TrEMBL record:
It comes from the Eukaryota. It comes from Sesamum calycinum. PANTHER family: EF-HAND CALCIUM-BINDING DOMAIN CONTAINING PROTEIN. GO terms for molecular function: calcium ion binding. Keywords: Calcium, Metal-binding, Repeat. Residues 2-37, 38-73, 77-108, 109-141 form the EF-hand domain. The keyword Acyltransferase does not apply. This is Calcium-binding protein CML23. Gene3D superfamilies: EF-hand (1.10.238.10).
């Protein structure tokens, strides 16, 4: 069986109501089914952080990204974090996508403030952050 088909089968199993999305309640149940523990608040936070389109649910692509990112250690964590901030798989973080993610995390910033944050780490001057620039931004000074 192809890897993607296996992911689809596992995703469908966790998607208990069959709507094609995993909600925080389903995520919590899935973590419990593999022996883990997750509070309702943790499940909500996890979905907010991993949800690529902002609809409050995990789609199959979010699920695959999470599963493939697991076990990659710190590099995988950075890639997962980058994907949370980037705009719809574009490969870069814009001021608008940074503002959207910060807003989800409860931190209100203007687009201009986000542009200034990006400018400090934008090594090639294109106005957006690629993964290498994001990695530099996340590294301890």
């Amino acid at each position: 069986m192809e890897k993607y088909e296996q992911y689809q089968r596992v995703f469908d199993h966790f998607d208990s109501n069959g709507d094609g999305r995993i909600c925080p309640v389903e995520l919590r149940q899935c973590v419990g089914s593999i022996g883990g523990e997750m509070t309702a608040e943790e499940a909500e936070a996890a979905v907010v952080l991993m949800d690529s389109d902002g609809d409050g649910f995990l789609c199959l692509e979010d699920f695959v990204r999470i599963v493939e990112g697991a076990g990659e250690g710190e590099a995988g964590d950075l890639k997962a974090a980058f994907k949370m901030y980037e705009m719809e798989g574009s490969g870069w973080i814009t001021a608008k996508s940074l503002r959207r993610m910060l807003s989800r995390l409860g931190e209100r910033r203007s687009v201009e403030e986000c542009r200034n944050m990006i400018a400090r780490f934008d090594m090639n001057g294109d106005g957006v952050l690629n993964f290498d620039e994001f990695k530099a931004m996340m590294s301890p000074s």
